[in-house]
Design goal:
Radius of gyration: 50 Å
Distance between the termini: 82 Å
Strand order of the largest sheet: 4-3-5-2-6-1-7-8-9
Number of helices: 23
């Protein structure tokens, strides 16, 4: 019993806590029902309520059971409050007023002042409860009797009755044999009792003694039908229908006439009532829990509706935010990949071996010809500027996209010009006819005049190409102009060594600065969403707690507990992409294209304004240069597409799970070509364009772009510079390919 009481108390507390989360109006029916059932769950007494329409003899029946005129009775509806009759050693009345005042009076005469309807048939507004204490052996067993006002009189009384019935372990519904089971009584039976889990009901028929014998038989037959149609949950072997002539029974009790009490039906009813209570009372949880279950179901339904509404609002916000973040992440990764590629190319260019291989010969010749300054400006600076701008371009993209840190120019200065100190000029100049002395330039060197200067220039080329400078210096006697050529080569080597070292150092520092530009801050949640998350967690906790308490008292539920929501961190965070360093070889660049294709596939969007074909490569372009330019064009096109998505409200609009299928279908349709044009000429052009690209009619835009990409890499005219006939064929092929691409991308 102690464990059962504790479980019932916890269930009552859980019901109250859950209802508090709903913010119910205090006067709402659900709020009143929750308070009533919670108080009833922990009430140790067994309550028996008597209810029915006014003037059906409810108070008279209870007075007959008690054996005196304890309760007020009259020919007009009198009971204006719910009167609880409890055990007491003396007859005593306690009135509790709304303001907290308690009024104690001996006897029950005070009921005439506080517990009956006034002259306007209104209940008193200031009365909270009415209790009568009476020394009766039935009450001494822990039983309470509840005399309710008559139904079908005033709405205010009906609300009171409906509330009090929920706290009754056993309900006695009094019927009038003269107008048996009216429509109103049937509705009350359904709405006030059955639908609320109150099924421990006994029907008592009054006023049969006022009918003729023939009428009594007819009423008896109808009563059997009523009893059988309502399956009360009473202990086995007990009927749910009894006859009691209330007024004769009361008179018999007052006179002590046992025979008259028996003939009125009172004794038989009392005996059955005491036996039923004796069985139900020890296990009153089986009577109360179905009612608690009915109330809990209403609370759970309301909580779930509130939880679902907030969850949808939060999901909508999260979906929009995740979409924005996803687009920014993809853009950041692409920008970083392009930046890393450009920086990798510049780093590779700055490597000393690469610089020497590509520029040392021309630089040494320019030095020998007193033309180094012009060569540095027209060749070396031009190449460096192009590579620097390629890297800076990506940081400009990042700043425009994220507005986190403004990009700075990448400036790699040139070292001071190389200087050569000439050795003493020999008097014999016959050695000018040695191998490598043929001049490769037409000018006269600034170091030496006449044919000697020309010989120096020729020796530079000879020495670098033949690697004579690596041979043992003692193996052959060097000529003067070869010695001077070596000095030029050494000076240029030192120049490029300083240039490479300083350039790589500046580039590394520039990469660190770029991290503050190619990033974005994840925005903090607004206070409204933070509050919604907290409210959602509180509602789910209340729902789960109620579900757990219902399980403890063996009440099954159709609901599953909500999973715990992961704690959300609202601290400022930044996203900085850190992919692996991009390789510049064409074999490694396939990963870039694969990511772009996956990105386009994942976003499910279509670029309405198609970018123009990629720019042509420079003359004499190698295949890897064509590939690099094409890749650069692809990255720019995809980033531009993401900018469009970020500005478009549609990019942030998320659909519910139920409409995801429709979204996928729309994506598929958007990737396919739109409806065919009307004229036959346009149809023929489109068909021919598909044929040129080697595609089936109505191929998707992604397939068109892929086919175009493949053909450009295969037929770019710059790949056939040294093959004039093939180059002309390639130019014609690319002309038709570009035309086909334009037709299909704009249709």
């Amino acid at each position: 019993m102690i464990l059962e009481y504790e479980n019932h108390k916890k269930l009552a507390d859980s019901l109250k806590s859950a209802s508090a989360l709903l913010n119910l109006e205090r006067k709402s029916q659900l709020h009143q029902d929750i308070i009533t059932i919670c108080n009833h769950l922990v009430n140790p007494s067994f309550r028996i309520a008597v209810f029915g329409p006014f003037n059906h003899g409810k108070s008279t029946l209870l007075n007959a059971i008690l054996g005196n005129r304890t309760l007020p009775i009259d020919l007009i509806p009198t009971t204006g409050a719910a009167i609880t009759v409890k055990y007491g050693s003396d007859v005593l009345t306690r009135i509790m007023l709304v303001d907290g005042t308690e009024i104690y009076r001996s006897g029950t005469e005070v009921l005439q002042q506080f517990a009956i309807l006034d002259s306007n048939r209104q209940m008193r507004k200031d009365v909270a409860s009415v209790e009568v204490f009476c020394p009766h052996p039935f009450l001494e067993t822990g039983v309470e009797l509840l005399d309710l006002p008559g139904t079908n009189d005033r709405d205010e009384q009906d609300n009171l009755i409906r509330e009090q019935l929920l706290s009754a372990d056993l309900v006695i519904q009094l019927l009038d044999a003269r107008k048996l089971m009216t429509l109103g009584e049937r509705e009350n039976l359904r709405d006030w009792l059955l639908d609320r889990g109150i099924k421990t009901v006994i029907f008592v028929v009054n006023f049969i003694n006022l009918l003729e014998l023939d009428e009594q038989k007819q009423v008896q037959n109808r009563l059997v039908f009523v009893a059988e149609s309502f399956r009360a949950e009473l202990p086995p072997g007990f009927s749910n229908l009894y006859r009691v002539d209330a007024l004769p029974a009361l008179r018999a009790r007052l006179k002590g006439d046992v025979a008259a009490a028996n003939s009125s039906g009172l004794v038989a009813f009392e005996t059955a009532l005491q036996n039923i209570v004796g069985i139900l009372q020890p296990n009153h949880g089986s009577v109360r829990l179905p009612r608690a279950q009915a109330i809990a179901s209403q609370i759970q339904l309301s909580l779930k509706a509130k939880i679902d509404l907030i969850a949808i609002e939060i999901k909508s916000f999260d979906d929009k935010q995740n979409t924005k973040i996803e687009i920014k992440q993809k853009a950041a990764n692409l920008i970083y990949k392009g930046f890393a590629t450009s920086v990798g190319e510049l780093r590779d260019w700055l490597a000393l071996p690469k610089l020497l291989t590509k520029y040392q010969a021309d630089a040494a010749v320019a030095l020998a010809e007193n033309n180094f300054k012009a060569w540095q400006t027209n060749t070396l600076k031009k190449d460096l500027t192009q590579l620097q701008l390629a890297a800076v371009k990506w940081l400009d993209q990042a700043y425009e996209f994220f507005q986190e840190g403004r990009s700075q120019d990448l400036l790699i200065p040139f070292p001071s010009e190389p200087q050569v100190i000439l050795p003493s000029k020999p008097s014999n100049t016959d050695d000018l006819i040695e191998p490598g002395s043929i001049a490769v330039g037409g000018g006269i060197g600034w170091l030496l005049g006449g044919p000697v200067g020309a010989a120096v220039v020729g020796s530079i080329s000879y020495l670098l190409n033949k690697n004579i400078q690596k041979q043992d210096e003692q193996s052959a006697k060097e000529s003067y102009h070869q010695e001077v050529a070596k000095l030029c080569i050494t000076a240029i080597g030192d120049y490029f060594s300083r240039f490479s070292s300083q350039g790589l150092s500046i580039l590394t520092e520039y990469e660190h600065k770029a991290e503050k530009v190619i990033c974005f801050e994840l925005s903090q949640e607004p206070l409204e969403i933070i509050n919604k998350r907290e409210s959602l967690q509180e509602l789910q906790n209340g729902f789960n707690q109620l579900l757990g308490e219902l399980e403890k008292v063996k009440i099954l539920s159709n609901y599953q507990p909500y999973k715990e929501i992961p704690k959300y961190s609202n601290t400022k965070r930044k996203y900085s992409p850190q992919p692996e360093r991009v390789q510049t070889s064409p074999e490694k660049d396939t990963g870039v294209k694969q990511q772009q294709e996956n990105t386009a596939k994942n976003t499910g969007t279509r670029v309405e304004s198609v970018s123009p074909p990629p720019p042509k490569a420079s003359p004499s372009a190698r295949p890897e240069e064509v590939e690099a330019k094409f890749r650069d064009w692809e990255l720019n096109e995809e980033i531009a597409q993401m900018k469009t998505e970020m500005r478009s409200p549609k990019a942030c609009r998320q659909t519910s799970p139920a409409s995801q299928t429709g979204k996928q279908q729309n994506t598929t349709q958007s990737n396919k070509a739109p409806n065919q044009p009307k004229t036959q000429t346009e149809k023929d052009k489109i068909t021919h364009a598909y044929s040129i690209l080697g595609l089936q009619a109505n191929a998707s835009l992604a397939e068109v772009k892929q086919a175009y990409r493949t053909l450009v890499k295969k037929w770019h005219p710059d790949l056939f510079v040294n093959q004039p006939q093939l180059q002309k064929q390639a130019q014609e092929k690319m002309h038709s390919v570009n035309e086909a691409y334009t037709i299909l991308s704009e249709k």
